[in-house]
Amino acid sequence: MFEKDKIYSLRLSDSSEIICKIVSSDADKTVISNPFSLLPTQNGVQLLPAMMSADFAKNVTINTNNITLTCETSLDVHSTYIEAVTGIVTPKKTILTG
């Protein structure tokens, strides 16, 4: 269903949207890591942990039937997600001129 180790944007049956990395997936359950919710702000989108009390060292299991929409995450949000999860800042690609 989902490609393992790929980052996806998921819309859940309660209309919430999360960004996460897929660990495994089948018809019954989808195991994800590092789920973040989107929070729109005046300066763009901010990511917050989807579950504030969760142990982020452990994976989260969701019912696959509760996933209503899926897509690959846009490049800007993907970079923000990587920064939130790892602390690594991805530089914007620019053309160097001399």
Q: Rounded to an integer, what's the Rg over CA atoms?
A: 15 Å
Catalogue the unreliable spans: none
Which structural category fits the helices and strands? mainly beta
The first-to-last residue Cα distance is: 47 Å
User: What is the tally of beta strands?
Assistant: 6
Element-level helix/strand string: EEEEEEH
Largest sheet: 6 strands, antiparallel
Discrete helix count: 1
Average pLDDT across residues?
90
Note the beta-strand portion.
Answer: 35-45%
Summarize the amount of helix as a percent range.
Answer: 10-25%
Net shape = globular
Describe the structure.
By secondary structure, the protein is mainly beta. Helix content is 12%, strand content 45%. It contains 1 helix and 6 strands, in the order ββββββα. Strands 1, 2, 3, 4, 5 and 6 form a 6-stranded antiparallel β-sheet that branches. It is globular, with a radius of gyration of 15 Å. The N and C termini lie far apart (47 Å).
